[in-house]
Amino acid sequence: MDSQHGGEHIDCTDAVHVLYQFLDGELTEVRRLEIQTHLRACLPCWEAFDFEAELKIFIGKRCQETAPDGLRERVIRSIAEDPGSEGMFRL
Fold it and tell me: What's the whole-model pTM score?
């Protein structure tokens, strides 16, 4: 299904392509409104959005593990000691 908002043509491919940016609040206000308008008019895209939104909530609740103490320091030290990583990382 296609929808139009503010002169911009949004199709299902466009809407699904930016679904994660929409969920994460990373779109401009104009683009967010365009996608939101499309989702309201298109049941298949709304269902895809609803599934992804629920999945994001589920993962957020279930995946709250933290790295063990010292892991960050070991990773930074390993990167710094790797001669092939010279110039790649600025820590």
Answer: 0.59
